[in-house]
Model the fold of this input.
Amino acid sequence: MADLFSMKGRVVLLTGASRGLGRDMAITLAEAGATVLCAGRTVKELEATARTIQRKKGKVDVVPLDITDEAAVREQVEAILRRHRRIDVLVNNAGIIYREAIVDTPTESFRQAVETDLIAQFVLAREVGRHMLARKYGRIVNISSIMGVLGRATVAGYVAAKHGLIGLTKNLAAEFGPDVTANAIAPGYIRTELNVPLQQDKAFNAMLEQRTAAHRWGTPVDLRGPLLLLASDAGAYMTGHTLVVDGGMTTILA
Ligand SMILES: NC(=O)c1ccc[n+]([C@@H]2O[C@H](COP(=O)([O-])OP(=O)(O)OC[C@H]3O[C@@H](n4cnc5c(N)ncnc54)[C@H](OP(=O)(O)O)[C@@H]3O)[C@@H](O)[C@H]2O)c1
Done:
């Protein structure tokens, strides 16, 4: 049964592998047998992820990349294809957030969120997708958010981009079938550096405990199963889908 979720022999390009969810995803995918290409801007942190994987005898490479730099994305995809011959799986995990009321938000902040959380994923899916289509195999996993299905004050750029990413996922599915699947994961609140202010907010913690059937924050470990499902052959008949992994937050009003 474990073979169903195996990533053995697969080459995975994973963005945002330097910390948070991406770091845990890199380790998970490597433990499942993949060669993980860890992309992000902070090389030192990517190398730390790589060392953890190497200590566990996993296969890993570091890919310095700002995902908002389209020319750099193209160059890195070409370089990966020269070096590894293929990309079987693309995990669009990297993302940013800013917190400000709409009336106080400079257009540039909103634009930056959309650039990093939506347009970069489009560019990566297009560049890697061309190659996947030619090879007749591919898995694209976009990391959206419950903010891709709900609104929340002060995070307009993030909400708009994460909603857009779910839409983009459906269109990738429409255009990339039958051999390439595209799905999204919409995590709820998972403890990482991204949400430190919320972790320290008592009122938010009380709301989170009440609004989740799980009565707790998620941890990166909670995303391992959903990721392997969508990245492996276990999810072969799923495409265009968004898997909400939120301890029940978006299904429960109170
Ligand atoms: N944590 C949660 O509760 C939660 C919930 C729902 C969805 N998500 C989503 O899950 C993903 C990961 O979140 P996280 O909590 O792990 O965040 P995090 O701890 O802040 O990590 C974000 C990652 O994205 C990378 N990144 C940001 N901008 C980049 C750029 N321009 N180019 C390349 N890499 C970039 C960062 O690396 P560098 O800065 O080194 O480039 C880092 O590795 C995000 O898409 C986020 O929206 C998180």
